[in-house]
Amino acid sequence: xxxxxxxVTAADFVKVVRKMESPVIVVTKPGSLGxxxxxxYLTSYKGFLFHTTSKDELFFPNCEVYxxxxxx
Length: 72
What we know:
- By secondary structure, the protein is mostly beta strands.
- It has one helix and five strands.
- The chain has a five-stranded mixed β-sheet, covered by helices on one side.
- The two termini are about 20 Å apart.
């Protein structure tokens, strides 16, 4: 079971991802379905969902990254 979705800054999101052994990240590109003007990122860590938005694309080497049509 997952806890609440927590929205954090892009810098804090990157910090969370760096703590993970095998990160899995879900991303939506700007303009996906014509709604969001920013990149959106979502990951799960210690039972919580962490979410952020960024005007610039964030890069996560050595991570599994999956593109979604929409994050709600």
